[in-house]
Specification:
By secondary structure, the protein is of the alpha+beta class. Helix content is 29%, strand content 21%. Bound molecules: flavin-adenine dinucleotide.
Length: 404
């Protein structure tokens, strides 16, 4: 956590971010230098840059500028033998794997050189919550599937599905637009008039204020609070995820909303893809989920010690099972940054396991056709599987460990 410096160089429009920095520290450092630059990454300010960039990293700038990993220019890296290297020394294959191939697999990244991206001096945000009969809410979400992935690249409208303890469902539309509110209003009115957003709900602000707006920090927080490494509401968390390539029917969406209604501690987040995500090839970096994905679904639950975790874990599995016919399949695609241990784990001490094949069970869900190349790179850079974890990329040279 002390390896958290961010060195911004406006002349080259880039920054070096040390491996222990958080997204909030990165965002704050950029904003302290200029209001004309930002960086595409996720919403949680306490998320660490290294795990995040290693798995991809997506946020409201994703449809315009892609993932964090798409904007990594170089790294400072230490391999299993203690060799210190950058992009030039490690070669393009290892550099490819470090961008989207998942954290903790290849070595330690101690610094990331990132490309800063242009943001206008004012951006527009909104957060509008709809309640009402499930059928009407489902119709609104149904339409969103035909709008959000196709909007101007600078527009990002995501949906949060939540429920109250009285089993009422809330559908919250969170919008971000790289431009002024009048433009944002006109785009929404033209493409998605059903959303019926009041004029005063479109809020103009600076990019760094928009980071705070979406950060989940308590009301009254300031951009200074983005630098805090500590989250006040600590809870347990379980996540799963899917990709949607064909619009889900209204009936399918109604069923999902009914399932959300029964669990006040669970939510579904629908994050639009399209834009530049459609124009980057599946194998340009290790992160593979690109063209043809309309949106990603994150299923997530939060709970504290006193809660009944069995109930919550069984809810998330039931929703995931219910969604099976509606989402990408063969393999069922999943985002590695929403790590899901239900997909399987390696037992490195079991001599009977072929770990490369065992890890394919989740490796192909996280990395699709890039899995085999990741195993190849792993075998080059960390033949002895020094960097391993229960859902890691295995080296094909090591079949088991006597002990860990
Ligand atoms: C509150 C919250 C909000 C989130 N929002 C988003 C979002 O908007 N968009 C999105 O894409 N994701 C989001 N995520 C998911 C997030 O991207 C992942 O959880 C990510 O793995 C977190 O990285 P970390 O470094 O904080 O975590 P860690 O658990 O520390 O690391 C994750 C993995 O990376 C490895 N790792 C860590 N540091 C290094 C390093 N220096 N070198 C090599 N490997 C390393 C670890 O060993 C581990 O395997 C969110 C998560 C949370 C908890």
């Amino acid at each position: 956590m002390n390896l958290n410096r961010v060195i911004v160089d406006l002349e080259s429009e880039s920054a070096w971010v040390e491996g222990g920095a958080t997204l909030g520290e990165l965002y704050s450092a950029i904003a302290a230098h200029s209001s004309y630059y930002g960086f595409p990454a996720g919403l949680g300010p306490t998320v660490g840059v290294s795990g995040h960039f290693s798995g991809g990293g997506i946020g409201v700038l994703g449809r315009k500028y892609g993932l964090s990993a798409d904007n990594v220019l170089d790294v400072g890296f230490i391999d299993a033998e203690g060799r210190v290297m950058g992009r030039a020394e490690m070669g393009e294959e290892v550099f490819w794997a470090l961008r989207g191939g998942g954290g903790g697999n290849f070595g330690v990244v101690y610094g990331w050189k990132v490309q800063l991206v242009h943001v206008p001096i004012r951006v527009t945000c909104f957060s509008v919550t709809k309640e009402g009969p499930i059928h009407e809410l489902a119709q609104l979400i149904y339409k969103w599937q035909f709008v959000a992935p196709y909007l101007d690249d600078g527009f990002h409208i995501s949906i949060y599905l939540t429920a109250s303890t009285s089993k009422e469902v809330y559908v919250t539309f969170k919008g971000f637009y790289l431009g002024l509110r009048l433009e944002a209003m006109s785009i929404v009115n033209q493409h998605y008039p059903e959303l019926k957003i009041d004029e005063e709900e479109y809020l103009e602000m600076s990019w760094i204020e928009s980071v705070l707006y979406f950060s989940g920090l308590p009301k009254g927080s300031t951009t200074q609070n983005l630098k805090s490494r500590y989250w006040s509401d600590k809870s347990y968390i379980k996540a799963k995820s899917d990709y949607v390539r064909e619009p889900i029917s209204i009936e399918g969406l109604e069923g999902a909303l009914e399932m959300v209604a029964i669990e006040p501690m669970g939510l579904l987040l629908l994050d639009p893809y399209g834009g530049i995500m459609d124009r980057i090839s599946n194998d340009s970096i290790a992160f593979p989920h690109r063209k043809g994905n309309l949106y990603n679904i994150l299923y997530v639950s939060f709970w504290v010690e006193e809660d009944d975790d069995n109930r919550i874990l069984s809810w998330i599995k039931k929703v995931y099972d219910y969604m099976t016919p509606f989402v990408a399949s063969n393999p069922r695609a999943t985002y590695v940054n929403y790590l899901d241990l239900d997909l399987g784990t390696i037992d490195f001490t079991n001599k009977d396991d072929d770990i490369v094949e065992k890890a394919r069970a989740w490796g192909e869900k996280y990395f699709l056709g890039n899995y085999d190349k990741l195993v190849k790179v792993k075998t080059i850079i960390d033949q002895q599987n020094v960097f391993n974890h229960i859902q890691g990329i295995p080296s094909s040279s090591v079949q088991y460990h006597d002990e860990l």
